[in-house]
Protein: Stage 0 sporulation protein A homolog
Amino acid sequence: MAKNILIVDDEPTLVKGLRFNLEQQEGYVIDVAYDGEEALNIFDPEKHDLILLDLMLPKIDGMEVCQKIRSVSEVPIIMLTAKGEDMDKIMGLEFGADDYMTKPFNMLELKARIKTILRRAGAQKTVADTQTIQVKDMKVNLINRSVEIKDEDVNLTAKEFDLLNLFITNRGKVFDRNTLLELVWKHQGDLRTVDVHIRRLREKIEQNPAKPEYILTKWGVGYYFTNK
Structure:
């Protein structure tokens, strides 16, 4: 079954080009929204497999759209932005985006990133050696990619779960930031991307993120999951 991509951008020319390349050349099913409000109305977590989301949108901006979608779904989100400042990219990741492309971007690179993200998301849904791992008050189901702490659901983004999965299946092993960037992001991003996601993951799973119990720091080396 063809993957369904939701394109959210207010530039008709860009949308037309994206639609041609992704629908006609790659065979994806494409839905389009031209502003943030329309995107939230159209988005269906059971239907859409990936979202291309512009940062600067009418009515509701891309950051808020990303945040609202992420509160109900782990669907992969690639932010599209005409701004090149690092802070815009980091803010997009803070609100739950999985990747970003700065306009004008290379269409071949965008296609490659889409394929990589979709392939990874599909594999993660079907491959796991152990269904459930429990550490202290945390229970992680590797099959349905769910997390519970003290029997309460914790909503993680796709990349946050990827990190947690890597850590919890390698308890006690220290990963430096370069290795995490390679394993989780396939070198797409920079070292600050890792720090942003670690911080955001801790905010969701730690009772006190300033004094973490699960994801610990080996100063001067990297991060690891507790083996106690």
